Amino acid sequence: MLPILLAAPLALLFSFGARAERVYLEVDSPRGGDLVREPIALVEVRGWVGTGLRGQHDVMIVLDRSVSTFRATGVDVDGDGVVGRAIESPPIDLPMLWTTDFGDTIISAEIAAARRLIERLDPNTTRMGLVSFGGNADLEAPLGSSREQLLAALESIPPRPNERGTCFYGALEAAIVGFGPATSESGTPRRRQILLLSDGIPTAPEPAEAAQSTSVHAARNAARAGARISAFALGPAAAQRRDLFQEIVSANGGDLVVLEAPADIVEFVPYMSWTQVARIELENATTGAPGRAVRLFPDGTFDGFAPLALGKNELRLRAVSEGGASLAITRWVTFEKALPDPEKLARLRKLLELRTLETELAERARQKREQTLERQKRLEIRPER
Question: Which of 132, 182, 198, 203 would bridge 165 by S-S if both were Cys, CB 3.0 to 4.6 A apart?
Answer without folding.
Answer: 203
